[in-house]
Design brief:
Elements: H1 2-18, H2 40-64, H3 71-78, H4 82-88, H5 92-113, H6 121-138, H7 140-149, H8 156-181, H9 191-210, H10 216-235
Length: 237
């Protein structure tokens, strides 16, 4: 089951990337577009409504759990009409993608900002994934719902998650290219293909936690750590 979920996730991410290959990779945190003259108030109102819906959904997911939360309850907490919720998310699963997108984007940006640039590739990868695992550990039940729902996510916020994941793959590929420049990774290695392999190992570790085989901490170390170390051996020059 875990292999099927990984394959589905990677196919969704790759498909999203194929649509975007003509331009640069999407940034980890989207920058809001500058509103057109005369429409600033309306654009800001829409952003504020989206933020209220996102915050209400997150509060209810953490209080009642994902299964115990309804879109009607989210609308009431955000003080908007139920129909307004569906302007910003296709369904409850898409609401989950909305709240997790911003948390993951913030975590990834912080991880790369604090990246130990002078360290070899393996410690750098573990640094990034340690930050992500810590984020998932803050609200494990909500995180488990997200990891379970993400491979099949297809709403507008699911597509944003796919774009964010594709951008993340490119950031990992950049670390591989840096390692190639240091003579640590073979020149014949395709950095993006290596990034796909690394992401698959990361997602498999998350699934081992989701399936109840190991705790979240063990999923990171030794499960993911050992898998990345084996992958790193195959990448070495």
């Amino acid at each position: 089951m875990a292999r099927k979920q990984i394959a589905w996730t990677m196919s969704k991410v790759s498909a999203g990337g194929a649509k975007r290959r003509k331009g640069p990779a999407s940034p980890a945190t989207p920058t809001p577009a500058t509103p057109a003259p005369g429409r600033g108030g309306r654009a800001q109102q829409k952003l504020d409504t989206r933020r209220r819906i996102r915050d209400a959904a997150w509060a209810l997911f953490t209080e009642l759990g994902y299964d115990g939360t309804t879109t009607k309850a989210v609308a009431e907490r955000a003080e908007v009409a139920t129909g307004t919720v569906f302007v910003h998310a296709r369904d409850k699963a898409d609401l989950l993608m909305l709240v997790m997108h911003d948390r993951i984007a913030t975590t990834v940006d912080a991880a790369f900002e604090a990246l130990p640039r002078k360290e070899p590739l393996l410690p750098q990868l573990l640094h990034v994934f340690q930050r992500l695992f810590a984020m998932y550990g803050e609200q494990p039940l909500v995180s488990q719902a997200f990891v379970k729902a993400f491979p099949g996510a297809s709403g507008p916020n699911g597509e944003r998650m796919n774009a964010l994941t594709f951008a993340f793959l490119h950031r990992i590929a950049a670390l591989v290219r840096d390692a190639q420049a240091r003579g640590e990774v073979g020149r014949d290695i395709d950095p993006l293909a290596a990034a796909h392999n690394v992401f698959a190992l990361y997602f498999a570790a998350l699934l081992s936690w989701l399936s109840g085989f190991v705790t979240l901490g063990v999923a990171l170390d030794p499960v993911l750590k050992n898998a990345l170390a084996l992958q790193h051996r195959g990448l070495r020059a």
